[in-house]
Automatic annotation (TrEMBL):
GO terms for biological process: tRNA N1-guanine methylation. PANTHER family: TRNA (GUANINE-N(1)-)-METHYLTRANSFERASE. It comes from Lichenicoccus roseus. It is found in: Cytoplasm. Keywords: Cytoplasm, Methyltransferase, S-adenosyl-L-methionine, Transferase, tRNA processing. It catalyses: guanosine(37) in tRNA + S-adenosyl-L-methionine = N(1)-methylguanosine(37) in tRNA + S-adenosyl-L-homocysteine + H(+). GO terms for cellular component: cytosol. GO terms for molecular function: tRNA (guanine(37)-N1)-methyltransferase activity. This is tRNA (guanine-N(1)-)-methyltransferase.
Amino acid sequence: MNWRATVLTLFPEMFPGPLGLSLAGRARERGDWSLQTHNLREYGLGRHRAVDDTPFGGGAGLVMRPDVVDAALSGVLGAGDVRPVIYLTPRGRRLTQADARRYAAGDGVVLLCGRYEGIDERVLEAHGVEQVSIGDYVLSGGEPAALVLLDSVVRLLPGVMGSERSGLEESFSDGLLEYPHFTKPADWQGRAVPEILLSGNHAAIAAWRRASAETDTRARRPDLWAAYASRTSNNALPGT
Ligand code: ADE
């Protein structure tokens, strides 16, 4: 299987960036996934290869032109290309682990990175572009967000992550944050590892980890906790 990522950006030098190293980089060398970048500037207009213009309605900043983005998408996408086209923007729906799993199960993604104030909404509509945000903060462009999205997906591709087990137990796989981790030394600067973890009692350890995951999720992520608690038909969960 060759999972394909295509990135349209004004800054192709930002790729593969961290995805050229470690797990993702080795997986790419093996051919588990591939990355192609295209410079949106190549589709710019006139002598200056302009890609943006002032916003209708006034306001600060510049907006990427629909004709330029359309030419880029049409130039890059083949006829039978069924991959989702995703525009990284703080206006998008929030990226989740479920999205990462869904993208990993497909043939790949086409990522559209904007600069300036954004991209003309009409070309996003016309191409059925998904709008995705990586969190409630504003980056200076979509590129770091595209790298984040790709990292979250590539590690899920078959054969990429060393241990399949750690994928099943990690944060969000069951709607909870993962339990905390400890390693040697058992006593470090007067801080002892929770004793149960040294007991060898696997059932007790599993119960302790589940309880820790619930406690931490409730304290740190009330949004996840509320969804988890309402899904778990057991209404007697602590703190609900
Ligand atoms: N571009 C700028 N900010 C972003 C964000 N938070 N998520 C995705 N793309 C962005």
